[in-house]
Amino acid sequence: MRRPNALLLFRMGAALLVVATLLLTGTTLLTAWRQSTVANESLGRLRDFAVAFDAFTALAAERAPSEAALAGSGPSDPAHQRMLLARGKSDWTVERLQKAVGETFSFNFDFLRAKLAGDRARIDLLVNEPPDKRVLGEQLSVIRELIAVGETAEPAVARLARQVVRADPQIAGDVNLVRLLAALEQAAQRLPSEVLPTLAKREVLRPDLQAAAQRTQQRILALWELGSTQLVLDRGEDVMNRQLELIRGEYFGRGFPYLTRLIERQALRPNATLSPGDVRAVYEPTIAPITTLRDLFLRKMIESATEHQSRADRAMATTLALCAVVVATLLWLTVFTYREVFRPLLTFQAQILAMCERAQKRFEPYRGDVPQLAALSRALATLHRRDSERELLERERMALSERLACLASTDELTGLLNRRGFYEAISARPATQDRAFVLIDIDHFKLVNDRHGHQAGDHVLRSVGAVLGAAAGTDQVAARYGGEEFALVLSGEAAREVLARMETLRAALEALSVAVAGCEAPLRLTASFGVALALGPEDSWDELARGADLALYEAKRSGRNRVRATNRILAKAGRSAAEPAQPQALERLA
Fold this sequence. Notes:
Number of helices: 21
Strand order of the largest sheet: 2-3-1-6-7
Helix content: over 70%
Order of helices and strands: HHHHHHHHHHHHHHEHHEEHHEEEHEHH
Strand content: 5-15%
Low-confidence stretches: 573-590
Number of domains: 3
Largest sheet: 5 strands, mixed
């Protein structure tokens, strides 16, 4: 028996759902309107509270950059710019609050602005003075005035909070938690205000400042003891749970103990190495989880109120029979649609993404009853097969390309660069003054081939190449230059010590013993070295190669098994020893 089309069944169920919904709408319109009115009022009050809360937070946050500016070097210090940005944010949030609640809320915004302007003017006067001329007492006084300005806005926040609770008593707990977290954050930010000005002055913490810091510490601990018992979150609120754990680990496990120890040490003796910036870099990031959790709670309340409003607009209540029809139809459509349509579509999506990202994922064919999805599954199977074939061909092509590139630039016998790869490598290097070009030739190599055969000669070349490859560091390029001739390029510090390094390398080759099959005693080798050192950036690699070749010829003519440099290098070395105080004259002579 042929199964019915799944899409047709879906459309029939959707039509039944629409009819049932229309019947329910008429009977529940009045209830939905009443619920919507209550939800709108609650959401409006909550948004006003959020605006006031932002203003209060911005005013309190202006203190930290102001403290940093007072501890800085002046108006050019980056902390001064951060202070100006914080002021702009404070002014914007206060203006926004006045526009939102100014007509219906009794609060003296003009007094708040005047108080802010006066305190900021005092801070600007102190910032414009040299750091050593700033009076510690004046700094502490103006910071406390800023704290007082922030506290003047707190009654307004409390009044709006009460209005929110009256509109929706169910969120009273969340409102109180937001205010508690805000108080905890403000106390945590206030704690360094008692010690950082003294730290910047390299003075011992005064007893009154130490007592103020201890009071702030006690307030932090009291707030946390009260809040930690209420901050019990559901398992589904993973983000908020993570922030709660971060508060325990970051702030109370790291930041708070760190500042407590600093206050205790600063009360005994001044710290000559630690700056206020260092303390802020360690302490202030640990406050961030408190701020994040506070904002998450506030956002949760607004989202809940918005969702409640939307639910009220869509709310429907009807008789038990009609509700049962709607619920049963919805459940059946949900399960059916997910099994026959959405789950296969998600599988198709994952398979397409896997092909795009070249991830290893087994292709799963569609086994449902929707003809369109079955056709799509067959098309995806074809695409998957062709993509696998194309990927295999691409990997083979890339491996062959890498192999060819390696063969083109590497000497197969020694494993070093060949002449072509050598010149490609040194051409990519910058033309600096500290460069050296060295040619190395194995002495009497022809006798090895004549007496012991070419296999022994190849073994000797491999042994010498291994020594040169091991001696070449990150600042050197080693290559088989041709036949029994090798080349080295040195730069930087190695180039300045090239003669000493090459003498060491010559001794290492002289001490090398190469065991050859059919020969009773191992072969002993020597090599001649020709060195050309760049006298300036204008010396090209070709010129250095010609100089090294001349020096190599001189080394062989002088008896082999020795290191020789070009006369230009030796002349320059002699002039440098005789006239070390005249570098410009040396360059002209060179």
